[in-house]
Amino acid sequence: MIYSRSDHTASLLPNGKVLVTGGNYGPVWDYHNNSELFDPKKRTWSRTGHMHYRRSEHTASTLRDGRVLITGGGSAVAELYDPSTGTWSPAGSMHYSPTEHGSVTLKNGKVLVAGGFIGTALVNNAEVFDPLTRNWTTVVSMNRSRFLPTATTLKDGRTIVVGGNYENTAEIFYY
Fold first, then answer.
1. pTM > 0.90
2. Which helix (H) or strand (E) element contains residue 19?
């Protein structure tokens, strides 16, 4: 890699390359706003555009059109990466600015962001991003506050949010 990092994201792009964004780097831990691409065919790394905000412990969700939505990790303003141009653009302001949250692209193409920390508070918040309008909508909160949960869209369109907080619980999300 070009930059050493932890607490970053890695997303598979439609062209087969992998987008790596943000995270921490040392020896003085600080957030990255840079991103890079891994080309598995050539086994090479290259720089691509910089995010507008430095982020760590954020999430990345690949949209149906191949763009990647980055949420949280130090900013309430989400960002979209366009692999066809290698550029970043704002994707509206979330109602919350979480870290260590979960996110998933839903069957309808929208993105669910749930749980995490806001500052030092563990939260059960949930909101949905619409890539067509770039608007954020708060939705029914989860029953439990969760940090580092996973979220998976099921075949029937529902989403399951699993674990977090070292728990063995799960919740089903309907949207």
1. yes
2. strand 18-21
